[in-house]
Amino acid sequence: MLALRLKHGRCNSRASRVLWLAVPSRQRHDNRSRDPEVGLTTPVPDDAGQTSSGSPFYFEAGYAGWAKRPSRPFPPPFFSPPSGSFSDPLSTHHRSKDRRPKVNGQLIRGITNGDDALLVSDNLIGTNDGVGAWAQRERGHAPLWSRLILHFLAVAAENDKYGGEGGAPDPVRYLTEAYEQTKEALSEPNEWLGTTTASSALLHYMKVDTTPKPVVYVTQLGDSSVMIVRPRDKSILFETEEQWHYFDCPRQLGTNSPDTPADNAVLSKIDVEEDDIVLAMSDGVTDNLWEEEISETAVTSLNNWHEMVEKGKFGSDVGEGGSLAEGMRFVANELVLAARKIAEDPFAASPFMERGVEEGLAIEGGKLDDISVVAALCRRRKG
């Protein structure tokens, strides 16, 4: 009976979700609190543009994230507000200095969303999912682990020029360097405990009869996900497989974890085409939406955005692809809202519920979690 209820609940849920996707966005979300945080690029140092990929392809990308609870502030020395006292002059000019989080004197790449971290750049995107249980431990700080590993990953890729012209990227080596540097940065006397999953997609290329073709290098450790969708037929070209120790305990990098990039990271190389969509998502998406729902939402949202552009509702230029980055930000936002709808529904059928029932657990509804999405479109550089 339970299996029958699950099967019918899942089918009915999917049908209702298709109808829900057809409802205008404004009508759906006017009564929702705490809208997702969205953006086009994540912060980088002023001189980061000096190191770029030699690939003729790049990502038009945007991100969205919704946190189940506010992120814990970064501790010193990673974030140190300027000191002040009653004896200081009545002036605030010194407080205008850059107070964004730093490590080793460098601005920390990416952004934090709850315990998650997201990164958006021209040739590298990623989403790491910090394990929230560390918030209950003294000196536990999962978002610091997820963010620093993503930061050092981006730096390692930049230092290697993303594989160089005609070369091949080595994302597992980048992740290994990031893991070791994060462990060093969070060791005594600045010891902070935590673990995180890691997933990233690096856009490079290969030559076929002297013609460059785009290739995506996907690195996966844990249960965050990278999915590649072809918009013209909504087909899923690729999706990472989740890695688990046991139910609800994914492979992870950090304190007391036996997992390492060299032993456990999975590298996949996928041939793609221009205008394919690459999604990097935390499990807040994949625990609440099935694969075909993610694909359907991504492509439908992009088509809806194009229609709104034609009607004059959007139109500012962003980057080489015109306003396409804004379109991908719209896609990411719609995916977050779709996942959040299920996460907050105690009666919805969800992939997390299905896996729990398979384990013999009495789980119903969606899974309330941090929800993070980077949506990127593969494009060719002009010239």
Write up what this structure looks like:
The protein has 383 residues and is α+β, with helices and mostly antiparallel strands. Helix content is 30%, strand content 25%. It contains 9 helices and 18 strands. It has a 6-stranded antiparallel β-sheet. A 6-stranded antiparallel β-sheet has the order 5-6-7-9-10-16, with helices on one face. Strands 3-4 form a two-stranded antiparallel sheet. A hairpin with a 4-residue loop joins strand 11 and strand 12. Helix 3 packs across helix 4 and helix 7 packs across helix 8. The termini are far apart. The N terminus is likely disordered.
Q: What level of helicity do the residues show?
A: 25-40%
What spatial order of strands do you see in the largest sheet? 1-2-18-17-11-12
Strand tally is 18
Helical stretch count? 9
Write the H/E string, N to C: HHEEEEEEEHHEEEEEEEEHEEHHHHE
Spans with pLDDT under 50 lasting ≥5 residues? 1-32, 82-88, 90-96, 317-322
Portion in strands = 15-25%
Distance between the termini: 62 Å
Average pLDDT score: 85
Q: How would a textbook summarize the main sheet?
A: 6 strands, antiparallel
Helical/strand content category? alpha+beta
Compute the gyration radius: what is it?
21 Å
Shape: globular
